[in-house]
Design goal:
Blueprint lengths: L7 H10 L4 H7 L1 H12 L19 H13 L6 H14 L3 E5 L2 H14 L10 E5 L4 H9 L3 E5 L13 H4 L4 E7 L8 H11 L2 E5 L7 E2 L2 E2 L6 E5 L12 E5 L2 H11 L17 H7 L14 H32 L5 E3 L10 E6 L7 H10 L23 E3 L4 H9 E5 L6 H18 L1
Parallel strand pairs: 2-3, 2-4, 3-12, 4-5, 5-8
Antiparallel strand pairs: 1-9, 6-7, 8-9, 10-11, 11-13
The chain binds pyridoxal-5'-phosphate.
Pyridoxal-5'-phosphate binds next to helix 6 and helix 7.
């Protein structure tokens, strides 16, 4: 196929379906790469052929009606629906404040920005933050964009979360915080991490984008750190098209995040709201900018979707946990794999599998077999994050050996969980791997 015959849309699809480094892409040349990708991807199944997709829509007529009703009000930019969702969210998850933004990535960005701009935290350019080596790109990039150095440590092989034993060794004079990313619904080991943070006066920051509804010692994740991020993207526990939330008990972070979310102005300040009660005061104060802000606002459609989804959320979670019970029963005791260990109350974003024994080096074969049987798979987050070439833009250091994240990178994959009954899907998953395991033994 000649390059000129490929539409831009197909090019992007082909480029995105084959993981490749920029260097490889440049060396190989665009045309040959696209040809290779085309051959490799000939086998891709249509959406209808996928029996067990990574994610399902959680919407029905309720979300459709909520959107239409809101459309007819004419109020579409951020307003009372977003505020009402924020209040309900904070109440539901047991935190003082919630600030909705347009994505989980934006929530991470505003947390980093607020902590660095608030002088009381003394968190500044050149300081360090300890982070797990398994995470999402935008768990890390906000800190590097503000000149914070990342100190990567290994994860725990079983829980996939940051290995709390590795944190102590990574602490230096410049360390100001620890980022705990609750992986795939599984709460981090907060008692140990909090103890280390308290002892060393470190900020604990939570990326809870994958773990809405998880609990540690009966308390919701997202309420342990000084601030936490949440995501409402399609594959996540609740879906608002795009969307995210910051939760915090700190009034200053709340005020800063509200200002940073909207251009850095004072207009959304709760404290300053009362001073705009005359037309002249409003005229003077509405365009007053105090912080180097962004525009990361959600809109009212995201707000009503959040309200609608939050009502359904307890049932979503119940079903996710029932699916997890089936998953554990089917794959928890197999010799050819290990699954994520969740001692606390996980909200089971997805089901991770690490191949062991005779399947240890057979991931490509297993992925192929699953694909042939209509089962979608994906790597566990980004795999070993340090292998992503974006790291060349970051100031970072590695503390210790990253053995476990490397195992996840080479032998791991995950399949989806959702709010619907996945018993048949999980049975097919197990049968497919069993059959392949028998074939090669
Ligand atoms: C751990 C983690 N943090 C942050 C994000 C970013 O969330 P969003 O896609 O809403 O920007 C994701 C996305 O899946 C994630 O898995």
């Amino acid at each position: 196929m000649r390059e000129s015959n490929i539409s831009i849309k197909d090019k992007i699809r082909l480029l995105s379906e084959k993981p490749v480094s920029l260097k490889e892409y440049q060396i190989k040349g665009k045309e040959s790469f696209l040809n290779d990708s085309f051959v490799l991807n000939k086998n891709i199944k249509n959406k209808e052929e996928i029996f067990y997709p990574l994610a399902h829509s959680t919407w029905d007529h309720k979300e459709h009606n909520a959107i239409i009703d809101q459309l007819y009000t004419g109020n579409l930019t951020m307003g009372e629906k977003v505020e009402s969702f924020e209040k309900s969210f904070a109440e539901h998850f047991g935190v003082k404040y919630a600030i909705m933004v347009n994505s989980g990535s934006s929530a991470n960005l505003l947390i980093a920005a607020a902590l660095i701009l608030l002088s009381k935290y003394d968190f500044k350019k050149g300081d360090e933050i300890i982070v797990p080596s398994l995470g999402w790109s935008t768990s890390y990039t906000p800190f590097t964009q503000y000149g914070i150095k990342l100190k990567f440590v290994d994860i725990d092989y079983q829980t996939l979360n940051i290995d709390s034993e590795k944190i102590n060794n990574a602490i230096s004079k410049k360390t100001k915080g620890v980022l705990a990313i609750n992986i795939l619904g599984n709460p981090s080991e907060f008692n140990k991490i909090k103890e280390i943070c308290d002892k060393n006066k470190l900020l604990l920051i939570e990326d809870n984008c994958e773990s809405l509804g998880a609990k540690y010692s009966k308390k919701y994740t997202g309420s342990f750190g000084v601030a936490a991020s949440h995501s409402f993207f399609f594959s996540h526990h609740i879906q608002t098209i795009e969307g995210g939330m910051i939760t915090t008990d700190d009034r200053d972070i709340f005020e800063y995040a509200r200002s940073l979310r909207a251009h850095g102005w004072t207009r959304d300040s709760i404290e300053k709201k009362s001073i705009n009660d005359t037309p002249i005061a409003k005229f003077r104060n509405s365009f007053n900018f105090i912080l180097p802000g962004y525009n990361l606002r959600p809109n009212e459609l995201n707000g009503v979707l959040g309200l609608t989804q939050l009502q359904k959320f307890p049932n979503f979670l119940k079903r996710r946990k029932e699916n997890a019970r089936i998953f554990k029963k089917l794959l928890g005791n197999q010799t050819y794999c290990s699954i994520q260990k969740c001692d606390e109350d996980s909200s089971w974003h997805g089901f991770s599998i690490l191949l062991e024994g005779s399947l240890k080096d057979k991931r490509d074969h297993v992925i192929y077999e699953l694909h042939q049987n209509g089962i979608e798979t994906r790597p566990i987050l980004t795999g070993n994050f340090l292998k992503n070439s974006v790291c060349s833009f970051m100031n970072y250091e590695i503390s210790g050996i990253l053995r476990n994240v490397e195992a996840v990178d080479r032998r791991g994959f995950f399949v989806g969980n959702s709010h619907i009954n996945l018993e048949n899907q999980l049975l097919r998953l197990t049968e497919t791997i069993n059959k392949f395991h028998k074939k090669i033994n």
